[in-house]
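Researcher: Quick test of sequence recovery. Tokens follow.
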């Protein structure tokens, strides 16, 4: 199982290998963790900066939330691998796997929701963070969108094993997350462009 102690080279080698895990869900979680880390870096260069002193409290709180998101995404990276391994084993054994299918949908869906929150936080600090790191805040947003979209793809891949009406309800929820993500990345991009134009 690949977790936070796995080196980058080891993870990439494992992801490229002919084996089921780590797969798309784990990669989505890693992309989300990278997004959070970029946001943290931007704010760590913002907290304590004299001309941003009025925003230090909010920026510091946002750092803490992004750190929590990053750690949770690394836990979800492990959970996604475990869930898929258990689902594969259950299917091979001919066992009832509906509960495990739901987990394989819910884990990447949670990854996508963390990406939504990361985008919301990035938008909130776009006007209050170090202007010299706005490009890194943009990278935060782009990585969050990669995590969001990848998580949704991974979740949707398992919907075929869920019966109606649950399948349609879940599919509609995933689409709502996608639409919200597109709205947020556009908002973040506009906020960064406006700040860059005014600096």
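Model:
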């Amino acid at each position: 199982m690949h977790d936070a102690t796995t080196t980058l080279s080891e993870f990439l080698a494992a992801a490229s290998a002919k084996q089921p895990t780590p797969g798309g869900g784990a990669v989505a979680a890693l992309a989300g963790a990278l997004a959070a880390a970029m946001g943290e870096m931007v704010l760590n260069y913002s907290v304590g900066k004299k001309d941003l002193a009025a925003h230090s409290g909010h920026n510091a709180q946002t750092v803490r939330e992004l750190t929590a998101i990053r750690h949770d995404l690394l836990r979800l990276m492990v959970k996604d691998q475990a869930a898929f391994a258990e689902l594969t084993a259950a299917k091979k054994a001919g066992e009832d796997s509906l509960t495990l299918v739901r987990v394989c949908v819910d884990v990447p869906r949670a990854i996508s929701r963390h990406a939504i929150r990361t985008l919301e936080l990035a938008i909130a600090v776009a006007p209050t963070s170090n202007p010299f790191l706005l490009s890194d805040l943009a990278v935060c947003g782009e990585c969050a969108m990669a995590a969001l979209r990848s998580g949704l793809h991974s979740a949707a891949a398992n919907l075929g094993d869920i019966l109606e009406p649950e399948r349609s309800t879940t599919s509609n929820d995933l689409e709502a997350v996608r639409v919200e993500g597109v709205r947020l990345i556009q908002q973040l991009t506009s906020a960064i462009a406006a700040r860059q134009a005014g600096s």
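The chain is about 75% helix and 0% strand.
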